[in-house]
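Revision sheet: structure tokens.
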Amino acid sequence: MNVLIAGAGRLGTQIARVLSAARNEITLIDVDDDRVAELEGRLPGVRLVAGDACEPALLEHAGALTADLVIATTGDDEDNLVISLLAKRQFSVTRVAARVNDADNAWLFDARWGVDVAVPAATPLISLIEEATGATDTVALLRLSKAGVDVIETAITPQSRAVGRTLGEVRLPEGTVVATIVRDGQPTVPDPAIRLSAGDELLLVSHSATEQEIHAAFQ
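Predicted:
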């Protein structure tokens, strides 16, 4: 799949990293030259483009004419709408997903603006990728075929039995490790002593466990 992502913030870079690992062709655009320079060499297999994705010429240069999917993940709803409209109307991109930063603007994110999938800012990463790509099988989407492992997400809810427990106290399925804990929008080093809280999102890597087994360990 040829994917064009507008916005190289935390969300955009995470999506680029995951989809690139799943052997998709990824182009990541950001208006901030310094941000693009900062990411050079940190996202193997991802093409980086500096420029304003709201400009048709920049989108064309980035590859919008051959993109299967455009994901607008900037922190500005107006920009995400413009990018979506251009992708759909001018470049006839089959599938367009856009992040909704302000819930009050959600009503704008529909087919009139070229948006096929509108995703609230609080949506967990893996759910967002599933919605954006139209995938129904997270494991298949994120399978790292070369390494033979899966990347799986689980979220800690207020009802989760893991709330208040340290990560080291949670018994994980064999062959499974926690890659990162996303808390308040920021990735956190998965130290065994860290105490889990409602709202935490965990990304785990496993070569044998199923999604159900991983969710069961925390829920």
